[in-house]
Hints:
9% strand, binds zinc ion
Amino acid sequence: MKIKDFKTHKITRSTPPYQSDYARYKPFLKIDFCGRCAYCNLKDITITTPFEVDHFIPRASFKDGRMDLDTDYRNLIYSCKKCNNAKRKQFSGDIHSAHPTNELFYDPVAVDYNDIYYRNHLGAIDSDDEKGKRTITRLKLYRPIHILSWLCEEMYETAERLEKAVKTEEDEIRKQTLESALNMLNAQYRKFNHLFIAAYNDNGFSIAAIEDMD
Ligand SMILES: [Zn+2]
């Protein structure tokens, strides 16, 4: 059951100056992809692990004959480390066609992922589309880190709204109630965010450490 859209931003594809090293396109990708992983929608500033440049058609598939795809901006995707690692060499398609693509995945620039994916009642990334479902498995988008990241973002945005409400509330009693709700939410946010970052970075974590944050 859908409870929310997959994303709220729109990905664009600009035409940056040619770079001989694909990694140099990262700042352009960051802007075009609004600082979010094209596959899981994670915001880059929420995680300490640097984002990466994914080749939509993987390097292993074009190294014998289509090296132009290595630095072809249209083949580069802004991706978090988890999604890039999960995607790896997975490929199906004809690299020698005029406009080669990777048929195993939806191109996140050509296809609006809101038409394929959504957040379900558990906060997980879900899809009613057959290829979309297979992609969730291929990219391991079912992992709890993707629920945790979404939960943290929802909490953060709710806290921002509450903070505004506290500032504008003139009734003293209501202001105090809003303030205590905000404090509770912020405390929960810190715990969940700690859990998310530890899980994402594979640092390991213990519930005891989270409890100690009280
Ligand atoms: Zn990702």
